[in-house]
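Journal club side-thread
Mid-discussion, someone asked how the predicted structure for our own chain would compare to the paper's figures. Pasting it here so we can look after the session.
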Amino acid sequence: MSFEALVGQVGPLFLFVGSGTEGEAVAVAGGAMAHRGMLPLWQVGLAVFGGSLVQGQVLFFAGRYLREMAWVRRVTAKPAYGRVAQGLARHPIKLALSFRFLFGLRSLTPLVLGTSTVAALRFALLNVVGALIWATVFVGLGYVFGTGIERLFGRLPVHIHLTAVVVCAVVLLVGIWVWRRLNRKRSVEVV
């Protein structure tokens, strides 16, 4: 079985699971794969949208119905929980629509929304709209990124595309990790 055939078979599942857990890097990689012709763009968009939607909904219901579980209490005891709860009090609709775009708050926000008085149906509707916007933006960026790479370097072999996507994702994740650690140290110094 060729690599491209393997991606065609398991790619949508990878994108579904990955977009719910890893987020942007997977969505961008999916867009690049669609540009390369490895997967149809509609499959990529649907898988990324679905994974993000399910992740938000599961975390919302965890906050709503499992708030006594140790891991939920641990998350809600963190300082970031208070900041998100304050934002929720001021702008619940904006927060429900935009949390996917807020690095570091992607998993926390639906949990906070679940512990609040936001109605489950209202969150579900906002979650659908937010996941659709998010999937469109990041899959689109991946597709455009794939076009830019192709124009710059010509049509590259699949393994080069995937290597470039993985390297970019790692650089992005390391950058976010360093940024968060620096901000954490600054907040400790201020206190």
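Post-session note: The mean pLDDT is 81.
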